[in-house]
Amino acid sequence: MIIMALNLNNNNIGFSQNTFSLEELTTATDGFSDANFLGQGGFGYVHKGVLSNGKVVAIKQLKAGSGQGEREFRAEIEIISRVHHRYLVSLVGYCITGAQRMLVYEFVPNGTLKFHLHDKPTMDWSTRMKIAVGAAKGLAYLHEDCRPKIIHRDIKASNILLDDSFEPKIADFGLAKLLLDPALTFQPEYFLNRFSVCNFFCCSYVDPAYASTWQLRDSSDVYSFGVVLLELITGHRPVDSTQSFLDEGIVNWARPLMERAPEDENYNALVDSKLQNYDPLEMKRMICCAAASVHPSAGLRPSMSQIVRALEGNMPLHELIVRNLDASR
């Protein structure tokens, strides 16, 4: 599916998603009650709701601070609403009431990858592999099949939701662009005022090239996805103060191990010690994908479609590290 860019000078834009009143969403969430509270993140607060037609949804109240006017906001919503993919959370509609803005999404019932990987009993290998492949396909769709392309900007385990079958769905794509003033997006002071220093720098999801240059490319999403792969492989959090070897982050710890493991075909130093069984060939593929994704040079990282092919065994692993000649990445 190709998403066409919108012309903001056209006064006849037709919006395809539903609009909701504040009253409707207040009723749906029982007054945004604590009982329906699902969580909060860098972009806002999320409540579970039931619409008048019985549809269960997740309603995100966006934090104040968008530099966009209402028309530009609606145009960005129109772009997001046209994105439909098996591995992406679908936008159902939105609400604008004064300065307050809310987004209504399909409800994904089984929580986040972060919760199931780090706060629940051990996730088996086949489930981890299924999540990696599905999330990679969703991100590849955003980068390569949408026009304009959508760079997520906030890929992490807590933004990968799971359904009852543990199929992944990527959440929050497009929100960074909605909430950040386009004229200020890449200024460090502006960005860090909206995302805590801890969350932005210390959690190891952020591409060092982006953190130093403030030039955003899809290779920054690839880096963040590589960190998620490392979580799936190792069972470790990106940073863990209780583990001294993770003080500098999972990437710095894992990088030398990833260089040796595929050659030696000995993955014990990397693999989650709680995993009872795993497919060695699939593990090799995921380790090679993770290593390529977090390559220090952004131009040498693979595209997400290459990662999909490599994870599925449809691409030679030595081709993952490629010099990217496309300056747009």
Automatic annotation (TrEMBL):
**Residues annotated as binding ATP:** 60
A Gene Ontology molecular function term of the record: ATP binding
Question: Could you tell me the membrane topology recorded for this protein?
Answer: Single-pass membrane protein
Q: Which reaction does it catalyse?
A: L-threonyl-[protein] + ATP = O-phospho-L-threonyl-[protein] + ADP + H(+); L-seryl-[protein] + ATP = O-phospho-L-seryl-[protein] + ADP + H(+)
Transmembrane among keywords: yes
InterPro entries named in the record: Kinase-like_dom_sf, PERK1-13-like, Prot_kinase_dom, Protein_kinase_ATP_BS, Ser-Thr/Tyr_kinase_cat_dom, Ser/Thr_kinase_AS
Subcellular localization, per the record?
Cell membrane
- Return the EC number: 2.7.11.1
Q: What class of enzyme is it?
A: transferase
UniProt keyword list: ATP-binding, Cell membrane, Kinase, Membrane, Nucleotide-binding, Serine/threonine-protein kinase, Transferase, Transmembrane, Transmembrane helix
Protein kinase domain boundaries: 32-321
Q: Which domain of life is it from?
A: Eukaryota
Alphabetical list of PROSITE patterns matching this protein: PROTEIN_KINASE_ATP, PROTEIN_KINASE_DOM, PROTEIN_KINASE_ST
CDD domains listed in its UniProt record: STKc_IRAK
Q: Name one GO cellular component term.
A: plasma membrane
PANTHER family given for it?
A: PROLINE-RICH RECEPTOR-LIKE PROTEIN KINASE PERK15 (PTHR47982:SF33), PROLINE-RICH RECEPTOR-LIKE PROTEIN KINASE PERK4 (PTHR47982)
The entry's family comment says:
Belongs to the protein kinase superfamily.
**What's the protein here called?**
non-specific serine/threonine protein kinase
